[in-house]
Amino acid sequence: MKRYASVRFGDALDRQECESATRALRSAGATATSWKTTATRTYAGLEVDGAADFKRLGDRLTGARLDEWLPNARLDVPPLGVLRVRAVHAHLLARVSDALVGAGRPSGIIDLVSDGDAVVVEFETQRTPLHLVIALIDGELATAPGRTIEPLVPFDDATLAAFAGGMLAIADLDASRIIETHTEALLARTAL
């Protein structure tokens, strides 16, 4: 059984550092499925062998030798939700930031950092659902719509099913049925 995780490095890793981290991950039973870098951090989505030891994996990450220690490696199982948000009107990102990390923020928000003309938000998808984060972003940008949201760590099927269920108001949407359930109806309508 495959499991998923994410790792965040507290610095923008270069290609050589990513390759070294990939070797360290592989030696601990994890495969990096994606790499994304922001101005200040690097994120990797991981597929982890069912028998992998997450404590060993975390120890391996923080002990891997590059030119120096891997900067502030953080391993999350299940993976964090990580979104880079750009707004057409960049000055409105302050409102988005306040909604996500200010007073009354959702409990699962881990961090929010500036990334040039964007912000990057990290959150625990089990405590703060993806559809809630998107709704908060869109609510703050309602007066001047126009945004791009880029996931920096791939979402697992359960998170995507919960997102689809939240957006479609189907609370118990089964992850295995998302495509079949909704594309069959669409295909039937277009066949007429």
Secondary structure elements and pairings:
Elements: E1 3-9, H1 15-27, E2 30-37, E3 42-48, H2 54-63, E4 74-76, E5 81-87, H3 93-101, E6 109-115, E7 118-123, H4 130-140, E8 147-151, H5 157-168, H6 178-190
Antiparallel strand pairs: 1-3, 1-4, 2-3, 5-7, 5-8, 6-7
Helix pairs in contact: 3-4
What would your notes on this structure say?
With 192 residues, this protein is of the alpha+beta class. It folds into three domains: 74 residues, Alpha-Beta Plaits, CATH 3.30.70.60; 74 residues, Alpha-Beta Plaits (2-Layer Sandwich), CATH 3.30.70; 37 residues, no CATH class. The strands form two sheets. It has a four-stranded antiparallel sheet, with helices on one face. A hairpin with a 4-residue loop joins β2 and β3. α3 packs across α4. The longest helix is centred in the N-terminal third of the chain and has 13 residues. The N and C termini lie far apart (42 Å).
What is the helix tally?
Answer: 6
Instruction: Please report the first level of CATH classification, the CATH class of the largest domain.
Output: Alpha Beta
User: Per the principal axes of the C-alpha atoms, what is the gross shape?
Assistant: globular
Q: Strand content of the residues, in percent?
A: 25-35%
Count of individual beta strands = 8
| Low-pLDDT ranges | 65-69
Q: Specify the oligomeric state.
A: single chain
Computed structural class: alpha+beta
**Average of pLDDT:** 84
Number of domains: 3
- How large, in whole angstroms, is the Cα Rg? 18 Å
CATH superfamily of the largest domain: Ribosomal protein S6/Translation elongation factor EF1B
Strand order of the largest sheet: 2-3-1-4
SSE run: EHEEHEEHEEHEHH
CATH-defined architecture of the largest domain = 2-Layer Sandwich
Sheet bearing the most strands, described?
Answer: 4 strands, antiparallel
CATH topology of the largest domain: Alpha-Beta Plaits
What distance separates the N and C termini?
A: 42 Å
The percentage helix is 25-40%
